[in-house]
Amino acid sequence: MALRTLINRKTLTTTAPLGFRGLQTFSLPDLPYDYGALEPAISSEIMQLHHQKHHQAYITNYNKALEQLDAATTKGDASTVVKLQSAIKFNGGGHVNHSIFWNNLAPVREGGGEPPKGSLGWSIDNSFGSLEALIQKMSTEGAALQGSGWVWLALDKEFKRLVVETTANQDPLVTKGPSLVPLLGIDVWEHAYYLQYKNVRPDYLKNIWKVINWKYASEVFEKENP
Ligand SMILES: [Fe+2]
C-alpha cells in the first residue's frame, strides 16, 4: 500500500520548477509493476504503449498548456486564458485518470483480482447486492459508453455511499460532483484494449477484473470514509 500510495501522491504532485515564477510541471510516474506483469489479461505491448506514449502525451500537452496559461496570465490575455481551458481539462484529466488507473491494476501474483475485504467489501454488498453485481454493472455501463471515456466506482463523501459513474473523454470524476472520490477507474478508450481485443470492448471488460487491485481501492475507501 505504502509504495503505491506514495507513487500516486508523487505522480499528482511531482513537480519541476519552470521559469522565474516557479511554474510547476508534471512528469510520467513509473508503473508499480512490469509491463508484462498483467498478462494474459492485458498484454505487455498495450501496457507499454499506453504508459509510455498515451499517458506521456497527456503530460506533455498538459505541461505545454500550463506554460501557455502562465504566459497568457502574465500578459493579461483573458481570451487565451479561456481558450486554454479545454486543453487543460482534457490533458490534465488524462494525467489524473491514468495515474489512478495504474494503481487500480495489479499482477495476479500480487493480489490482482482478489475480492475486496473489510469495509469496502461490506459496502459493495450493501450498495449493489454483491461484488459480482457491481462488476456486472460496471462492465455493462463501460461497454455501453459511446466513444471514449471511463467507468468509475466512487465514494460519494457527502452522502457516504458508493456510486458507479461514467465520464466522457478524459473528464476526471470530479466533473460529475465535487464530493466524488475515485476508488476504481477503468479506461474504456480503444487504446486501452484494441491491440489485444480489437473492437470487442466487452471481452476486455470481462478480463480486466482478473487484475483489479481491490486492495488499493479498499485503502482509499478506508482513508476517505473512516
Ligand atoms: Fe488510456
UniProtKB/TrEMBL annotation:
Its cofactor is Mn(2+). Residues 116-219 form the Manganese/iron superoxide dismutase C-terminal domain. It is found in: Mitochondrion matrix. PROSITE patterns: SOD_MN. Residues 25-106 form the Manganese/iron superoxide dismutase N-terminal domain. The keyword Mitochondrion applies. SUPFAM superfamilies: Fe,Mn superoxide dismutase (SOD), C-terminal domain, Fe,Mn superoxide dismutase (SOD), N-terminal domain. Pfam families: Sod_Fe_C, Sod_Fe_N. It catalyses: 2 superoxide + 2 H(+) = H2O2 + O2. Its main location: mitochondrion. Keywords: Manganese, Metal-binding, Mitochondrion, Oxidoreductase. Its EC number is 1.15.1.1. The keyword Metal-binding applies. One of its GO terms (molecular function) is superoxide dismutase activity. Mn(2+) binds at H50, H98, D187, H191. One of its GO terms (cellular component) is mitochondrial matrix. Belongs to the iron/manganese superoxide dismutase family. Destroys superoxide anion radicals which are normally produced within the cells and which are toxic to biological systems. Homotetramer. This is Superoxide dismutase. It comes from Penstemon smallii.
